[in-house]
Design a protein that fits this description.
- With 424 residues, the chain is mainly β.
- It contains 3 helices and 22 strands.
- The longest helix is centred in the first third of the chain and has 10 residues.
- The chain is elongated and about 85 Å long.
């Protein structure tokens, strides 16, 4: 039954189509265009995500709702042989934020957004269908925060990160091995809680040099224990009858399954500068993410053996801790019209020796453009476009006991985003 354990384990290997590891950073249209450089100063309700300490910048109730649409494409080759391209279709990343003063210098904010996710899809008959055909992971964070303005130049904040994960994987186990014609599906979810802290320091405020602020945000690990169902059916080889139904082997076609997964901790720091005439806004940010905490994923498959004995398996990924660097510039052309641009360099944490077909390999270069326009004096529409270009890469994939070279090239994503903000 060791093979059955491997079927489940390989089904749950995680990767991402959008950010390094399986991280998502698309929290608002304005933030996307500026490369996420809103850590030292945000000035709208999306401060709940970028730095909850910045909630003290707004003195009225503020609301923002938006979404980012993502489309991924990548040329794929296995052992030098061109495959059907990776093209999972459109994905939607929603967000909703509310901030409000509570009493005096105390503020409250609530955010609903996605911090992690993946989505890949190949043809049913591609060479590595034994590793994956379709994979989806959706994660949602419910994030209430309190912020307090200690002085006019220093604010602090803290909150809870309530994380929900849903995972689905479809594959053809032992695809290409004579006599096997199997299909498997795995589906599961989990809810867990972490926390975050943020602080903002106003380093300078001058009529001659403008305003300069420093922001720092820490996000904790979140330990998930994904639980769900594993189903497998089809035919397997038999020395006497040639091929028999999988159920005739005595193994169950349906089983519980679980996997322990730790979402990594991260630390973000950023500087924001506003010009003396308050027309130019410049931001810099960097994020360190401890992807090494996803080094191993532990699986358990209860009662899959005929004896009722449970099976377990550790899947090593050997991911590295990585950095993300970004810069953004915003110019207020008119009092009600702003133009934006940004750049992000996002490092890939995955290992060349232990890869997965669930994401293109290589570091990411992200270019952002955006426009903000006040439809009314307190109602603002933000739109943005990002082009994500991924470096070509190759990695070893072990399927059916054989090591294969999985290479991706011409990999990119298009991201369109829109947000609507209203201040009461």
């Amino acid at each position: 039954m060791k093979k059955e354990t491997l079927l489940v384990a390989s089904s749950l290997a995680l990767g991402s189509s959008f950010g390094a590891g399986f991280g998502l950073y698309e929290a608002s249209a304005r933030g996307n265009a500026l490369g996420g450089t809103l850590v030292g100063s945000t000035k709208d309700a999306s401060s709940v995500y970028y730095n909850p300490a910045n909630m003290t910048e707004t003195t009225n109730v503020s609301v923002m709702v938006g979404a980012t649409m993502v489309w991924l494409y990548s040329d794929v080759a296995v052992n030098g042989r061109s495959q059907q391209n990776m093209n999972p279709g459109l994905f939607c990343i929603p967000n909703l934020y509310v901030t409000t003063p509570v009493w005096g210098d105390l503020y409250f904010g609530l955010g609903i957004y996605c911090e992690d996710g993946l989505g890949t899809q190949y043809g049913d008959r591609w060479d590595l269908a034994g590793d994956t055909v379709k994979t989806t992971m959706e994660q949602f964070t419910l994030n209430p925060n309190l912020a307090y303005k200690i002085t006019d130049w220093w604010s602090v904040a803290g909150g809870l990160k309530m994380s929900y994960i849903y995972f689905y994987n479809k594959k053809h186990p032992y695809w290409g091995v004579p006599g096997y014609d199997l299909k498997s599906e795995l589906e599961g979810d989990d809810f867990s809680i972490g926390y975050n802290f943020g602080t903002t320091f106003r380093l300078m405020e001058s009529q001659d040099y403008g305003r300069l602020a420093l922001g720092v945000v820490y996000r904790s690990q979140i330990k998930h224990n994904i639980k769900g169902d594993f189903d497998i059916n089809g035919r397997v080889p038999h020395p006497k009858y040639g091929a028999i139904p999988y159920s005739a082997t005595g193994a169950s076609t349906h089983s519980d399954a679980s996997a322990k997964l730790t979402l990594p901790q991260s630390l973000t720091a950023g500087l924001n500068w506003d010009s003396p005439n308050d027309r130019w806004h410049v931001g810099l940010a960097t994020t360190w993410t401890q992807w090494s905490s996803v080094d191993t994923i532990a699986f358990k498959i209860p009662a899959r053996k005929p004896t009722g004995e449970s099976s377990s398996f550790d899947l090593p990924l050997e991911w590295d801790d990585v950095w993300r660097f970004s810069a953004g510039v915003e110019y207020d052309v008119l009092d009600d019209l702003s133009l934006r641009c940004g750049y992000v360099y996002d490092m890939d944490p995955s290992s060349d020796e232990r890869g997965t077909t669930m994401l293109p390999g290589g570091d990411r270069h992200i270019i952002g453009l955006g426009v903000g326009y006040y439809l009314w004096r307190t109602l603002r529409l933000d739109v943005g476009y990002n082009l994500v270009m991924m470096d070509s890469g190759s990695r070893d994939i072990t399927v059916n006991g054989q090591k294969c070279d999985f290479a991706t090239d011409n990999s990119y994503s298009h991201m369109l985003s829109a947000s609507l903000s209203y201040t009461f």
